[in-house]
Design goal:
The complex is a heterodimer of chains A (213) and B (385). Chain A has 213 residues and is of the alpha+beta class. Chain A contains nine helices and seven strands, in the order ααβββαααβαββαααβ. Chain B starts with a strand and ends in a 5-residue tail after the last helix. Classes of the chains: A alpha+beta (213), B alpha/beta (385).
Chain lengths: 213, 385
């Protein structure tokens, strides 16, 4: 443990030590309208989000995690953001990003960003699950609208951005994880430029506050 | 604070602190001929003798360094190069897959030149089979370097057996004994190794001082730092005199307290381990419960993540460490725990408690209580059943 990792904001600490909206009863008893489950214990974090939907808004949200302080703090914050002021509409909730959560948390140490990206993913999975349960599959947004970078493997700019958020810091690691540019190879230069761009955005400062554009 | 991270570093022994304070004004350069230099020289040599007596070797075989990382670098780099001015490295080195980063990364650096490195795999308890070491020996093997006690899980390697094999094949043998010195008796007349590294700050001396033991009969080393003739020209630079004097005192205290510390700390460690396991299910002991340093227990608390446990214990003012990836700032958890051929989540869930001479029974009682509370709380929010 590096002392630098302790640079958690007071808000992160508050949410870590006193997490909000944890599912403490049995899932069946809670009876959610949608459940999202992402990550794996092998990777060191997994996240489960349960939502209740009323009038197309997140009426309630509960969660469980196998995760570190940053994962717990950011998901607790996400649960507050999604449910406050009568709850986000499902469309708004779908668009919740790690950057928005990090911003509300008052920043996260750059090397902990990757621990905070599971919550919003699990939330989208839960919304997707709700759409499926209620016959609204047509409302599941098409996530592939982001610019396709690797045409051979259909990897988008957003996929690259998410990889960087999850801790990838160089093209070689990106390639190991996604196989990007291993077929025809013509996207490699563009992909390298994007890696540099996003690494610069998220990791230049010790604390990433989410508000840089 | 309840400090259970003594394998990371230790607080100063009160006697060492006292000694440092007494020494602060002795600024003389031990290489100077005048009184102020000679006065410090005498204390430096007294310290060297103290350490040599403790390890049962000749004072001339003790080289003061900035710590074990420097000692490890010196030995490994000079094993494969011929002189300080020759930057080409060749040959073969045998080591384990759970060494400290100062060995791992130094060898990785050498392997980018012309050095071949064989990493002997430990078994599921973290132990090396000496037979595997013997089988890995090649005609061009220049050195065998195996740590004495692992810093994360506390496993004690069969160093004597491995050293006997090295001797039989006439290969220099090095051990990183950072976690062993002061905890288990080391008699360098009995143990046929050529080089040994240690750090002062693991035995209640300050940071920035350590030693490299180099047997007189062993191959010469080339200094990592060249310059003046300090330390028989094997480590240039004006000596860290206060550090050296402090280390001598720390070793003296080690010798006096060793038996009593072992008895007391072992009992506390066992109480901690048993106390936790009596109240919590799904707790795994990492490493070998038998061949293990008496002050370490490394436990995995299934279904929850190490950094969360660490930070919540920190809230209770209890200091421990973890092998989870989140603590390393990388995507990979501890390579020591994953080398035990366990699922990665066991590494992500691991916590090392390392006790020290200052640990009290009350500390252990409070820790058991805090661990049970923390683990129960975090498990309640875990999605894994």
């Amino acid at each position: 443990m590096d002392g630098k990792d302790w640079n958690y904001s007071e808000t992160v600490k508050e949410h870590f030590f006193h997490p909000k909206n944890i599912l403490e009863i049995d899932e069946k008893e809670y009876n959610p309208d949608g459940v999202g489950y992402v990550g794996s214990p092998a990777c060191g974090d997994m996240m489960k989000i349960f939502i209740k939907v009323k009038d197309d808004r997140i009426a309630d949200l509960k969660w469980q995690t196998f995760g570190c302080a940053s994962a717990i703090g950011s998901t607790s914050m996400l649960s507050v953001m999604a449910t406050r002021n009568g709850g986000m509409t499902l469309d708004e909730a779908w668009k919740l990003t790690p950057e928005m959560i990090i911003n509300e948390l008052g920043g996260l140490p750059a090397n902990k960003i990757h621990c905070s990206v599971l919550g919003d993913k699990a939330l989208r999975e839960a919304i997707k699950d709700h759409f499926k349960r209620t016959g609204q599959e047509d409302r599941i947004p098409d996530d592939d609208k982001s610019r396709v970078i690797c045409e051979c493997l259909n990897i988008t700019e957003d996929d690259i951005r998410m990889e960087i958020l999850e801790g990838v810091k160089d093209f070689k690691t990106l390639q190991e994880r996604t196989k990007i540019g291993t077929v025809c190879g013509k996207c490699q230069d563009t992909a390298k430029t994007l890696v540099d761009f996003y690494v610069g955005r998220y990791y230049t400062d010790d604390i990433y506050t989410g508000d840089k554009k | 604070m309840i400090y259970l991270d003594n394998s990371a570093t230790t607080p100063l022994h009160p006697k060492v602190k006292e000694k440092i304070i007494q020494t602060l004004d002795l600024f003389g350069n031990p290489s100077s001929m005048h009184t102020s230099g000679r006065q410090v020289r005498a204390l430096v040599e007294e310290s060297r003798r103290e350490i040599a007596d403790f390890l049962n070797c000749d004072p001339d075989e003790i080289i003061f360094t900035a710590g074990a990382s420097e000692a490890n670098n010196t030995v490994l780099k000079s094993a494969t190069t011929c002189c300080a001015f020759c930057n080409e490295s060749r040959g073969h080195i045998i080591t384990s897959n759970i060494e400290h980063p100062s060995v791992m990364n130094t060898l990785q650096c050498l392997s980018k030149q012309h050095v071949d490195v064989t990493h002997i795999k430990v078994n599921s308890k973290g132990l090396i089979d000496p037979k595997d070491v013997e089988a890995a020996i090649r005609p061009d093997t220049m050195m065998i370097s195996i740590m004495y006690i692992n810093n994360e899980i506390g496993t004690i390697q069969p160093i004597k057996e491995i050293a006997d094999i090295a001797k039989k094949h006439n290969i220099p043998m090095h051990t990183d004994a950072v976690q062993a010195v002061g905890k288990i008796p080391i008699d360098l007349q009995e143990l046929p190794i050529d080089f040994l590294s240690m750090s002062g700050h693991k035995i209640y001396a300050p940071k920035g001082i350590g030693i490299l033991f180099k047997r007189k009969s062993s191959k010469n080393i080339c200094p990592l730092i060249t310059g003046g003739h300090q330390e028989k020209s094997m480590r240039a630079g004006t000596e860290n005199t206060i550090g050296i004097i402090a280390l001598g005192e720390a070793v003296r205290q080690c010798r006096l307290e060793m038996d009593e510390n072992e008895k007391r700390i072992r009992a506390l460690r066992d109480k901690l381990e048993q106390g936790i396991m009596a109240q919590l299910d799904h707790v795994i002991v990492n490493g070998d419960p038998e061949h293990r340093a008496y002050n370490i227990t490394n436990l995995s608390f299934m279904n929850i993540e190490g950094e969360s446990i660490l930070l919540r214990l920190d809230m209770h003012d209890i200091a421990v460490s973890t092998g989870s990836a989140c603590s390393t700032g990388s995507l990979e958890p501890s390579y020591v725990i994953t080398s035990l051929e366990v699922d990665p989540e066991i590494a992500h869930s691991s916590i090392r408690f390392s006790l020290g001479r200052q640990t009290s029974e009350e500390d252990i009682d409070k820790t058991i209580e805090a661990v049970v509370e923390t683990v129960t709380f975090l498990r309640k929010m875990s999605p894994i059943i």
